[in-house]
């Protein structure tokens, strides 16, 4: 049975359009850029760790350590006025490091437990367009809102962020991911619903983030529905989109559906990467189709994609289960005598542009 807080959140999601209209009024100016006119973002990032956004311009400067420490101490000693003090610093073209800014966020969230203050700080930082924000900052914000069932402040903040940064969805995408990382699935979906209700256009990376959030939460039907909606909106899935779908289907043993989407991936000209091959080799092997898994393994090596120890072990295990012991031993010898490095954890990071 759902808890009272969960039921309340789901009501928020279902009524996102009404909430947005009533709370924010008719005078907003949401992004109505059509999808085909949006400029693609080209900065590659690895998830789940997002790199820091630094947008300093020539006539602004980061503070020195002593100067920064003095500013932070001043703000922490007068948290009630943290937002105007921060804004005053920005007007002098002095910006904090992301680490220092996060100290202020933590104080507002933990010491004062003040969501309004957290929102003000984020709003001032984003509006400056020069304050560096890293994944830790967004995670602090998500954790602060995770403690409350009142989503009104969250909706106000995310609307402000989208209005400031539109049509670039980078910041809001990172907010979405942070809520997903905290396990705040309903709140992440609430933000996504608000985005659509206010006619802000989700980009490819927004959709990829939502796919991963739904998949990790085990909401496979919702994930596949979102995948379909994404294509209907005219956004072509990339390798990251397909990997999210394939990997989460694999985890639940939906091997036949994996084959369908893998075939669709090829039809659409999307080249598989290490994550794709890993998911499919595992799926095919566990479903008893070891010959096809071996074919993909060979194809991966021809394409100079380094296999991981995990791929070798998966193949060897499935070959043994099928009684193909000789092939299993041959692969084991190949693995043990391999003179090149295996793919490691960094190779399994999902290459997502944001």
Automatic annotation (TrEMBL):
Coiled coil: none
Residue stretches of each PPR repeat: 168-202, 203-237, 238-272, 273-307, 308-342
Domain of life of the source: Eukaryota
Species name: Prunus persica (Peach)
Family of the protein in this entry: Belongs to the PPR family. P subfamily.
Cellular component, GO annotation: cytoplasm
Molecular function as annotated in GO: mRNA binding
PANTHER family linked to this entry: OS03G0856100 PROTEIN, OS12G0638900 PROTEIN
The keyword Nucleus belongs to this UniProt entry's keyword annotation: no
UniProt name for this protein: Pentacotripeptide-repeat region of PRORP domain-containing protein
An individual GO BP term: mRNA processing
Keywords noted in UniProt: Repeat
Keyword Nuclease recorded: no
């Amino acid at each position: 049975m759902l808890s009272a807080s969960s039921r309340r959140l789901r009501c928020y999601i279902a009524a996102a359009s009404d909430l947005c209209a009533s709370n924010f009024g008719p005078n907003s100016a949401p992004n109505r850029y059509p999808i085909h006119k949006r400029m693609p973002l080209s900065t590659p990032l690895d998830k789940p760790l997002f790199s820091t956004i630094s947008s300093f311009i020539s006539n602004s400067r980061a503070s020195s350590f002593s100067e920064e420490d003095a500013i932070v101490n001043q703000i922490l000693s007068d948290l009630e006025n943290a937002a105007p003090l921060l804004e005053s610093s920005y007007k002098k073209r002095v910006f904090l490091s992301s680490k220092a800014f996060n100290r202020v966020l933590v104080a507002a969230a933990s010491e004062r437990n003040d969501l309004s203050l957290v929102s003000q700080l984020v709003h001032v930082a984003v509006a400056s367009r020069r304050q560096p924000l890293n994944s830790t900052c967004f995670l602090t914000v998500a954790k602060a809102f995770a403690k409350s069932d009142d989503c009104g402040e969250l909706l106000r903040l995310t609307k402000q962020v989208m209005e400031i940064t539109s049509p670039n969805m980078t910041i809001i995408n990172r907010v979405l991911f942070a809520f997903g990382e905290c396990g705040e699935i309903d709140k992440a979906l609430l933000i996504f619903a608000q985005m659509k209700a206010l006619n802000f256009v989700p980009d490819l990376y927004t959709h990829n983030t939502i796919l991963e959030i739904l998949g990790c939460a085990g909401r496979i039907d919702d994930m596949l529905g979102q995948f379909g909606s994404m294509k209907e909106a005219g956004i072509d899935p990339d390798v990251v989109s397909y990997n999210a779908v394939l990997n989460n289907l694999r985890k639940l043993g939906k091997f036949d559906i994996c084959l369908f989407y893998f075939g669709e991936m090829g039809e659409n000209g999307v080249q598989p990467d290490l994550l794709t091959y890993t998911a499919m080799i595992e799926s095919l092997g566990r479903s008893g189709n070891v010959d096809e898994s071996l074919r993909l393994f060979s194809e991966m090596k021809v394409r100079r994609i380094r296999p991981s120890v995990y791929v070798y072990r998966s193949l060897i295990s499935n070959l043994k289960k099928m009684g193909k012991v000789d092939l299993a031993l041959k692969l084991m010898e190949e693995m043990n005598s391999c003179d090149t490095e295996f793919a490691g954890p960094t190779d399994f990071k999902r290459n997502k542009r944001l």
